[in-house]
């Protein structure tokens, strides 16, 4: 049986962050559990340029279309490779960091992640068979975040992006009041990521491999 393929996305532009420690713990434990792991680190890897024309948010269909840039094509290939995606990011202004949002805009493109049908209002979810996990850090308390912000970044990423494209979200972890956390709190959170990774490495089932889908 093939090993599960896990893509870890660290969605902060700040190197050496708590999210990096969490992601590193997860990746190490997933590898130890037998999974193949790739890491996209937006503090060190290229953040794609914000799209400026419509063609940059869809797969090229003809030679006349705007081609994917080399870094975007590599990121698309990473998502296509993965059975399971794990997102680590801090909540900024009640939303996702701009680097992660731009990465999603450029990578989850029409013709790869989803495809509109010629008639009606339905669409095809082209990333079905994959799963995901979301880990978000934040300074606000959990109840404040739910009441005032309505868990906006989680709902946006889970409902309007991942599940829209057919990716089933297996779990969401919110680590709250980071600014007031202690060293012991952070160590506990880091250990918790290793536990989640061990679970995912054992339970994620490799999907059938297929070529990239174009609209």
TrEMBL record:
Span of domain Flavodoxin-like fold: 5-181
Matching InterPro entries: Flavodoxin_fold, Flavoprotein-like_sf, NAD(P)H_dehydrogenase_qn
GO cellular component, one term: cytosol
GO molecular function, one term: NAD(P)H dehydrogenase (quinone) activity
Keyword set, alphabetical order: Oxidoreductase
Pfam assignment, any one: Flavodoxin_2
PANTHER family: NAD P H OXIDOREDUCTASE-RELATED (PTHR10204), NAD(P)H DEHYDROGENASE [QUINONE] 1 ISOFORM 1 (PTHR10204:SF34)
Family designation: Belongs to the NAD(P)H dehydrogenase (quinone) family.
Protein name: FMN-dependent NADH-azoreductase
Lineage: Bacteria, Bacillati, Actinomycetota, Actinomycetes, Micrococcales
């Amino acid at each position: 049986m093939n090993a599960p393929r896990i893509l870890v996305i660290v969605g902060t532009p700040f190197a050496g962050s708590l999210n990096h420690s969490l992601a590193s713990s997860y990746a190490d434990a997933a590898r130890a559990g037998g999974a193949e792991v790739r890491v996209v680190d937006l503090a060190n890897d290229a953040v794609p340029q914000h799209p400026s024309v419509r063609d940059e948010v869809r797969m090229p269909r003809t030679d006349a279309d705007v081609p994917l840039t080399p870094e975007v094509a590599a990121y698309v290939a990473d998502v296509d490779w993965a059975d399971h995606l794990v997102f680590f990011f801090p909540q900024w202004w009640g939303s996702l960091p701009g680097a992660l949002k731009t990465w999603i805009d450029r990578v989850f493109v029409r013709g790869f992640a989803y495809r509109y049908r010629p008639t009606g209002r339905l669409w095809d979810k082209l990333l079905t068979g994959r799963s995901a996990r979301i880990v978000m850090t934040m300074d606000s308390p959990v109840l404040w975040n739910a009441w005032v912000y309505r868990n906006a970044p989680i709902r946006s990423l889970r409902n309007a992006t991942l599940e829209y494209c057919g990716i089933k979200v297996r779990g969401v972890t919110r680590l709250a009041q980071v600014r007031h956390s202690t060293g012991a709190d952070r160590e506990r959170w880091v250990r918790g990521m290793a536990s989640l990774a061990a679970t995912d490495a054992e339970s994620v089932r490799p999907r059938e491999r297929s070529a990239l889908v174009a609209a």
